[in-house]
Design a protein that fits this description.
Number of helices of chain A: 17
Strand content of chain A: 15-25%
Shape of chain A: elongated
Strand order of the largest sheet of chain A: 1-5-6-11-10-9-7-8
CATH topology of the largest domain in chain A: BirA Bifunctional Protein, domain 2
Number of strands of chain A: 16
Oligomer: homodimer
CATH class of the largest domain in chain A: Alpha Beta
Distance between the termini of chain A: 49 Å
Largest sheet of chain A: 8 strands, mixed
């Protein structure tokens, strides 16, 4: 027991300063989601394994944390697993509670998820997801709203971002038009790597996956499209003129860009055909957000799915959603020093403790500060003044109040600004007002 | 797959209305804790089993949820378990991060815990704890602060409560004075049941535990003490005059009551010698809070412990803390209908969707409402008006805006109050102000 205790690898403790900063991100998301009419739900950390298995591919099944049965059934195979994401529990929730839900259902959910991934820098076995989805509506106004939410959240956080958009139907149209309609998944997986491995490597990967040279050649100019979003859509419309699904995707994108332009949303938005995302359930719009001033993977992403709840026996319900990557957003904001001082502000004023009558008077004055909503405290015991001051310093408390024998007799307090070192004497009664305005 | 999906027994989904109400409780706690200088921390859901085992007694060990190892080690005995409470992880955190902590350390923590208990009404396998502790200070000002926090939290929530206080040293003094100093645990466990099983049953239980008839007779008047808190303490002081530890406990209680009285804390506080609480680590003050107008177990409780971190190799650090039982507080507030309307307020206004130009104008006006912080939304598609109105009703949205062709032409909107049915026409530009003040 003399060995220092530790926590499982891939998990983290969060200190007061870290927790406050993380909450600043979550609170910002929550406030914006509410502003757009989304409501919070919560689901249990444990789901039945039958709910989770087979939903994340073979690899995902292996990464599920399974919970041993308790009591007599301990030796039987596990029946429960920890939540792996918030999407499958959301689908399960919608099907299970369908009779209590007024569709379209707009929900957000901010909870931790667990994956038995090999831990590495920036990848954890426990991390939070922050999802916002609407289910039960095919209208592209929902896509517009999510784009507005992206603009609002990152605007409030002060993170400059680019929103990349694509559409799964356009990708399907491309697969169709190059003569490989059944290789959509192969093509999108390969395209997804364009940024990482470059054009040549993608081409050889496509060849390995059985796409013929002729088709790859026809694909290449599409990948190299440039110009404005609307110029890209125009060229694509010409290329995909024979593909019904491709044209449908183009029409959707045009409608979304039209809605965005009309509202003058202050956000850098880019049509990016290399954006495919791994997950196979997206059927329409695909979103991905990148920070402009910090190099890191996508910090937010999502898309439209036409059959999320089908896996639980409720087919044909379309939805669209995005997920904010709180850990990466945290890293970006730390890296760029974007957290405002008030995001980590704790106690505003510490009363030094001189015991006896001075302590009694301090406690009374403290109660009045707290009534005004000012976070305030007293050092719990009459320790040496040096020790008390150090405590205030280590905790970055901006003001210290000295209410000693002299001040008590005079009905005053001495207020010390811990940053400037400046001290001033003032009537005890005026302290609440002074600290509210300072 | 056509069978409706479900969740593990003893766990719960929380709907938007339930989540909003629960958050109202958590937010109230959080705001009050901050006001008193407590900072949030978070610890992982999983702890090493070595951290958890042996900390909750034999029964507790059985109730730990164990997590199967992943990959190749899957068949080896589990090494990780889910958090069973927030106290042991807090002790582990303090020892692990002792060099980064400025003691006294005032922290709060609001996170779920898991117990493989047999599920029953009001008892869940996943539930939230809401703990506030200070560690590294023996001063009774900390006890005072926790009492103030109890008064503030329940005051804000509107729940009338009684705070019951006791002191482990007084209980030890009693054990000593009846000649059974080593039977403190037996005596307190038995006393703890006084409320539930009555005096006679407690007496036979004490006899079964080897306390002789003479000692039980000497214990009886102590259990029957009545009068004001200070009268009780006076009688006790006479009875325990030979017990050093008993007198120390009485002195502590007198100091706490003195501090409370000087501050005129608006809280019903009662010295209750039958209050012992099961846990063995309390060494001084013991707290328990009961709702006055609703029959349910304790809704908040805690106490002082002198050696919480000793189990992790850091002995002699005294602390004191309390835990708010969010689930029970929720039940009390639901039962007494105490949640204020704003606790569940979601969207304030819904725009009906008429498509085309009307939709475009609605989206522009919506953006202005949201700028003012008004949660507002538009039905995502131009569905039948009846359907849209029903949706507003099912979600209890208080106002609906109609911006149809006529209104668009006139630059007005029709605002409908969904509770009264009253409708009024007003200039579109004045809608934000109207909804802010209404």
């Amino acid at each position: 027991m003399s060995q220092k205790p530790s926590i499982p690898k891939g998990t983290r403790d969060f200190s007061p300063a870290e927790t406050a900063r993380r909450n600043y991100i979550f609170d910002t998301c929550r406030r914006v989601f509410r502003l757009f009419g989304y409501s919070p739900i919560e689901t249990p950390a444990m789901e039945n394994l039958s709910t989770l298995l087979g939903k994340y591919g073979e690899e995902g099944d292996k990464l599920l944390f399974r919970i041993q049965n308790s009591g007599e059934q301990a030796s039987a195979p596990p029946e429960k697993g920890l939540r792996y994401d918030l999407t499958v529990p959301f689908a399960r929730y919608v099907v299970q509670h369908q009779n209590d839900i007024a569709f379209p259902f707009k929900r957000f959910q901010i909870q931790p998820v667990w994956r038995a991934d090999r831990p590495q820098k920036g990848r954890y076995r426990e991390f939070f997801q922050c999802d916002v989805d609407v289910i039960g509506s095919r209208s592209l106004v929902n896509e517009l709203e999510l784009i507005q939410i992206v603009a609002e959240v990152f605007g409030h956080l002060g993170v400059a971002v680019t929103l990349k958009l694509n559409n799964r139907k356009i990708l399907a149209g491309i697969a169709e038009s190059i003569g490989h309609p059944d290789s959509l998944v192969d093509i999108t997986v390969a395209i997804d790597k364009l940024d990482k491995i470059g054009l040549e490597a993608v081409k050889s990967e496509l060849a390995e996956r059985g796409i013929d040279t002729d088709a790859i050649a026809r694909l290449e100019p599409i990948l190299a499209l440039s110009g404005t979003n609307s110029a890209k859509l125009d060229s694509l419309a010409a290329t995909l003129s024979d593909s019904e699904i491709g044209l449908a995707g183009i029409a959707e994108m045009r409608e979304i860009f039209g809605l965005v332009d009309a509202l003058e949303i202050p956000l850098h938005i880019e049509l990016d055909l290399s954006l495919a995302r791994g997950l196979n359930y997206y059927t329409g719009t695909i979103f991905e957000v990148k920070a402009r001033d910090w190099s890191i993977g996508s910090i937010c992403g999502g898309g439209r799915y036409d059959d999320l709840t089908g896996i639980f026996g409720m087919p044909g319900v379309s939805g669209v959603g995005i997920s904010f990557g709180a850990d990466r957003i945290f890293d970006v904001m730390e890296g760029l020093d974007l957290f405002p001082a008030e995001a980590v502000a704790g106690t505003r004023v510490l009363f030094l403790n001189f015991g006896g009558e001075e302590q009694a008077a301090s406690l009374r004055l403290l109660a009045r500060l707290r009534e005004k909503g000012i976070p305030a405290e007293i050092y719990p015991e009459a320790a040496k003044m040096k020790r008390q001051m150090e405590w205030a310093n280590r905790r970055s408390i901006p003001f210290v109040v000295i209410l000693g024998a002299d001040e008590l007799a005079a009905g005053t307090v001495t207020l010390k600004n811990m940053q400037t070192g400046e001290q001033q004497q003032l009537p005890a009664a005026s302290l609440p007002e002074m600290l509210t305005t300072k």
